[in-house]
UniProtKB/TrEMBL annotation:
<keyword id="KW-0175">Coiled coil</keyword>
<dbReference type="InterPro" id="IPR008135">
    <property type="entry name" value="Competence-induced_CinA"/>
</dbReference>
<dbReference type="Pfam" id="PF00994">
    <property type="entry name" value="MoCF_biosynth"/>
</dbReference>
<dbReference type="InterPro" id="IPR050101">
    <property type="entry name" value="CinA"/>
</dbReference>
<dbReference type="InterPro" id="IPR036425">
    <property type="entry name" value="MoaB/Mog-like_dom_sf"/>
</dbReference>
<comment type="similarity">
    <text>Belongs to the CinA family.</text>
</comment>
<dbReference type="InterPro" id="IPR001453">
    <property type="entry name" value="MoaB/Mog_dom"/>
</dbReference>
<feature type="coiled-coil region">
    <location>
        <begin position="90"/>
        <end position="117"/>
    </location>
</feature>
<feature type="domain" description="MoaB/Mog">
    <location>
        <begin position="5"/>
        <end position="172"/>
    </location>
</feature>
<protein>
    <recommendedName>
        <fullName>CinA-like protein</fullName>
    </recommendedName>
</protein>
């Protein structure tokens, strides 16, 4: 197995001022093509530290991708650090000087003298072209590793990886097998619960199971060799075990709702109390979904709900009927006020109405509460559209009441 390391540079990345989207993107791309990354490192704008990290990685990695630090300013130190690690000097690439001047001439601008720094490469380095920007990439061979230096600007970085670096890896390491990630998005189950449910599944060589928790969803990922038929058998078994807690197959709950609503041409009306507009804002993230929202009312000053369940159901039933009849919609959605640690949600269609009151099993922040309530409500919508039981199983919630 290849040892592949990525070194991200820059104080802004190290201190968290910006999110390292390049690293996440590269990890996904390399994995899909059979080159899983084994290590990721972040180094600030310090030449000697970066040089030591490059040298260290050159002994225990086959491939090293250094991202960032190729600009014209004084804090762009990757070329100098590479030269220090390789114990060589810097030399000017006349070819790249000419390329940069041509780029500026095309813009009817004179190239600033500071840009000459971007043509200073370690002696013996191989230049990697960058038709998108002024920072060329370059590669060196040091000890065990082939080390590529890439610009930090995402568009330039992605072009260089896809057009230059990945083809190099595929040419020199053809035995690596590309992988496909099959995704099942779930709601209502815990990560440990899902792990226990799937623990008896036997994975063939080259297959892996992964999990990604992002409140309130848990994404279950099956990594399998591309075009392997056995993957479909495994997926079918996983779907059987996870049941109707799967809110989307290779797509999120929201993407699934967009598909279902457009397919069935259902107009939606909403009345929100506890969620305070969270539901309608969430739905409006999808252009096609927003087209089917006929009415949306947000009540920020709702009083606490009745403790008497019969009175509560009667009031919600009345509210749902008003949404359905006055808005002339196909589906009405309702989120009630939070009463203590309980909340009530409801849905109405021509086929009937469904109301449930649920209780949080632990304390959540206000934003987390709104997210969970909105998810339960939209999960009810998803279930109704898919023709399965509207009342799901939620491990983190107690059901106090359900009425149809």
């Amino acid at each position: 197995m290849l040892e592949i390391t990525m070194i991200s540079t820059g104080e802004e990345v190290l201190l968290g001022d910006i999110t390292d989207t390049n690293a996440a993107w590269l990890s996904r791309l390399f994995f899909q093509h059979g080159f899983p990354m084994t290590r990721r490192i972040t180094v600030g704008d310090h030449c000697e530290r970066l040089a030591k990290e490059i040298e260290s990685c050159s002994f225990n990695s086959d491939i090293v991708i250094v991202n960032g630090g190729l600009g014209p300013t004084t804090d762009d130190l990757s070329a100098a650090a590479a030269a220090m690690a390789a114990d060589v000097g810097l030399e000017q690439s006349e070819h790249w000087v000419a390329e940069m001047k041509a780029k500026y001439k095309k813009l009817n601008r004179e190239m600033p003298a500071a840009n000459l720094k971007q043509a200073m490469l370690p002696e013996g380095a191989e230049l990697i072209d960058n038709p998108v920007g002024t920072a060329c990439g370059f590669s060196i061979k040091l000890n065990r590793a082939w080390i590529c230096f890439t610009p930090g600007v995402p568009s330039e970085f992605k072009f260089m990886v896809k057009e230059k670096i990945l083809p190099y890896l595929q040419l020199h390491y053809p035995q690596s097998q590309s992988l496909h990630c099959h995704r099942l998005f779930t709601y209502g189950l815990s990560e440990s619960g899902i792990s226990d449910t799937l623990k008896h599944i036997v994975l063939p060589h080259g297959y892996e199971l992964g999990y990604r928790s992002s409140l309130p969803f848990i994404e279950v990922k099956l990594f399998a060799p591309s075009n392997d038929r056995y993957a479909l058998e495994l997926l079918n078994e996983m779907e059987r075990l996870l049941g109707d807690n799967i809110v989307g197959k290779n797509l999120s709950l929201l993407d699934n709702l967009e598909y279902l609503i457009e397919k069935k041409q259902k107009k939606i009306g909403l009345l929100e109390h506890s969620t305070g507009g969270f539901v309608v804002n969430w739905l409006n993230q999808k252009c096609k979904l927003s087209e089917y929202i006929v009415s949306a009312t947000v009540n920020h000053n709702a009083t606490k709900e009745e403790s008497n369940l019969e009175t509560l159901v009667s009031e919600i039933d009345k509210q749902l009927s008003l949404i359905y009849s006055h808005s002339k919609v196909d589906i009405g959605l309702y989120s009630g006020a939070i009463a203590g640690d309980c909340f009530t949600v409801g849905i109405i269609t021509i086929e009937g109405r469904w109301i449930q009151q649920l209780q949080f099993k632990r304390e959540y922040t206000y934003d987390a509460q709104r997210s969970i309530i909105a998810t339960v409500l939209l999960d009810m919508l998803r279930r109704q559209l898919e023709g399965i039981s509207v009342f799901g199983r939620y491990e983190s919630l107690n059901r106090i009441l359900q009425k149809t």
